[in-house]
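Weekly sync, protein design subgroup
Attendees: M.S., D.O., the rotation student, P.L. (late)

Item 1: inverse folding check
M.S. brought a backbone from last month's batch and wanted to see whether the design step gives back something sensible before we order anything. D.O. pointed out we never logged the input encoding, so this time it goes straight into the notes. C-alpha cells as presented (248 positions):
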C-alpha cells in the first residue's frame, strides 16, 4: 500500500523537472495526479510516463481563465482534492538596470499570480485534511545578482504560505513551502547560454556544502513528506532541500 492510496493530487508545471518527478512519485504512492503544462505535446509525454494514474490538462497558470479546465477535470472525478503542489513558475536573469516592465509583469503573473489563483480556484474542492505545498526558492533568502525579480516572487510565495496556513487551519488544511536549492532541471540549465549549462551547474554546486546540485527526485521526496500524514503537525513552515546552502 502507498502512502497516498485513494488521494487526488494536482501538480502544476508537472511536465518536467521537479514537477514531473513529484507527479511520478505521488502516483507511485497511490495518488491519482492531475498535471498541468503549457505545451500539449510535452504534457502528453509526461502523462504517458506516469500512466493511468495521471490526467493531463493543458493550462498556463499565468492566465487565470485557463485554470477553469483544471478545476473541471478535478470536479469531474468526483473525489475532491487532497494535495496541491503549486509548482509552476520560472524566471530569467536581469540586472537592475535591465529590468523591463514585461520581465517584471510576466514573472509575477506566473510565479505569484499563478500560485495565488491556482490555490484560490481549487479551494472549494479541497477535502478536509488536504495539504497544499508551495514552491519557494533559496533566492528569497540570499542576494543572487541579476535575479531580484524572481527572488521577490519567491518571497511573496513564502508570505502566502504563512498567511494561508492561518486562514485554512479551521478547515484542517495545511499549507507548507518546499524550498529547493539548485537542482539539475531544464529550468536551471535554461538560465545558461547555449553550451555553458555544465559550467552553470558546476558554479552552483560550488556554493553547496554537499558539493553538488540536487536531483528532482530529492525534491519530490520532500513534497511527498509534506503531502502525506507523516507531516501532519506541520503548517506554515518552510522545508529547505538545498544541500545546506542556506543553513551552513
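Designed sequence read out in the meeting:
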Amino acid at each position: 500500500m502507498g502512502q497516498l492510496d485513494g488521494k487526488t493530487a494536482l501538480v502544476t508545471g508537472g511536465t518536467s523537472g521537479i514537477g514531473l518527478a513529484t507527479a511520478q512519485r505521488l502516483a507511485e504512492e497511490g495518488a491519482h495526479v492531475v498535471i498541468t503544462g503549457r505545451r500539449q505535446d510535452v504534457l502528453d509525454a509526461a502523462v504517458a510516463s506516469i500512466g493511468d494514474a495521471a490526467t493531463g490538462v493543458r493550462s498556463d497558470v499565468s492566465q487565470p481563465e485557463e485554470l477553469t479546465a483544471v478545476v473541471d477535470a478535478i470536479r469531474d472525478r468526483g473525489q475532491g482534492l487532497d494535495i496541491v503542489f503549486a509548482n509552476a513558475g520560472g524566471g530569467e536573469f536581469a540586472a537592475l538596470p535591465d529590468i523591463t516592465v514585461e520581465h517584471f509583469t510576466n514573472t509575477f503573473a506566473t510565479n505569484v499570480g499563478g500560485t495565488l489563483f491556482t490555490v484560490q480556484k481549487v479551494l472549494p474542492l479541497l477535502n478536509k485534511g488536504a495539504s497544499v505545498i508551495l514552491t519557494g526558492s533559496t533566492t528569497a533568502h540570499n542576494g543572487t545578482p541579476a535575479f531580484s525579480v524572481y527572488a521577490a516572487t519567491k518571497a511573496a510565495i513564502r508570505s502566502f504560505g504563512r498567511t494561508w496556513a492561518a486562514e485554512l487551519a479551521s478547515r484542517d488544511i495545511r499549507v507548507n513551502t518546499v524550498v529547493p536549492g539548485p537542482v539539475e532541471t531544464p529550468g536551471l540549465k535554461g538560465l545558461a547560454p547555449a553550451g555553458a549549462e555544465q559550467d552553470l551547474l558546476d558554479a552552483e554546486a560550488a556554493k553547496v556544502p554537499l558539493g553538488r546540485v540536487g536531483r528532482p527526485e530529492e525534491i519530490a521526496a520532500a513534497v511527498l513528506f509534506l503531502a502525506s500524514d507523516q507531516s501532519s503537525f506541520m503548517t506554515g513552515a518552510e522545508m529547505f532541500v538545498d544541500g545546506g546552502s542556506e543553513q551552513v
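Discussion: The chain has a mean pLDDT of 96. The longest helix spans residues 101-122.
Action: P.L. to compare against the previous round before Friday.
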